């Protein structure tokens, strides 16, 4: 039986803390083993993004390095929502309270956003709200039930090991409760997170759980549209998508 998703209780991060976390994650992905993680995730995203199309593709949180991959999709416009450390061209906002209009986004990418959110279930609620019916959702996350999850116990306090890794079975439950259908899932990096010469040759690493996963889901919501009325205008500027937080 699926458990109910927890209700959102405001636990907002300090702005300075959010900036420090963002910079620390960016630095981690710029060196090993972060470089290996990014290359593996880029490869699997490159196989998924061509199937994502529409007007708007949104990256919610996560390191800015993933923004460079959005061009592999067939979406017309791509942009990112990030907190105070947002880069030029980003929309400033919190993943738990997106400054985005309802039913306005065709696809959303969450690159380890849930791993570092104070309320990952609330992030998913916001994503469900802004996605159009049949919209795509791509989620990258660290697997707590893997060698990477065990390594976190020894490195606690340092990004990314200080994250709240979400197990994939729990994520799938949350997505089901919100009306999403799992399209595909991928398990990556079936090895230890540290450099160990000959590690891959000492056993069949296919038997190990992947340290990182990608879940591709789709919002299954029917919506009746009167005959003769368009769902959305053909051209729509960014100003029509973003909206201020009340």
Walk me through the topology.
Blueprint: H1 15-29, H2 34-48, E1 53-60, E2 74-82, E3 91-92, E4 105-111, H3 120-130, E5 131-142, H4 147-154, H5 168-177, E6 180-188, E7 212-219
Describe the structure.
The structure is a single chain. The chain has 246 residues and is α/β, with parallel strands linked by helices. It has a single domain (24-189, 209-222, 231-240), classed as Vaccinia Virus protein VP39 (Rossmann fold, 3-Layer(aba) Sandwich). Helix content is 24%, strand content 22%. It is built from five helices and seven strands. It has helices at 15-29, 34-48, 120-130, 147-154, 168-177, and strands spanning 53-60, 74-82, 91-92, 105-111, 131-142, 180-188, 212-219. The protein has a seven-stranded mixed β-sheet with strand order 3-2-1-4-5-7-6, with helices on both faces. It is globular. It starts with 14 loop residues before the first helix and ends in a 27-residue tail after the last strand. The relative contact order is 0.16. Mean pLDDT is 80; it is low at 228-238.
